[in-house]
Specification:
32% of the residues lie in helices and 31% in strands. With 138 residues, the protein is an alpha/beta fold. The protein has a 5-stranded mixed sheet, sandwiched between helices. It is globular.
Length: 138
Amino acid sequence: MSRSRKQIVAYCDGAFRLQPRGSAGFVLYTGEEKIAERSEPLSGFGVTASVCEYVALCRLLEFLIQRELTDRKILIRADFKAMIDHMLGRAPVRSRRLEPLYMKAQEFAAQFEHLEFEWVPRLLNNGADQVVRRWFII
């Protein structure tokens, strides 16, 4: 991965298909160049659409931390408005199922110097959406 000082724009998404199947993933860009993408299947009876979204965010933040990119300017975009509102402190997390994931995401987010969150409509989250939906083609 290039160590240029350009802003990293990250798109994360979760997908859910009939209990207990879901997936989580993300795509990273610097400018127009895709620099990374990851996705993984999720399963279990605790998996919901919201859980998939939060797992995607946590995996993204963890990926950036592992690659020592916490000093970079990072913009995270997601189409799950409630999660973005939670991360920005605009709305409380009311779900006991999401609370531990939210706390983990906040713990990871605190390690970054320049981290922003932005809600985007689903159509603008297409790259991450495609990455997570690969798991349902089978």
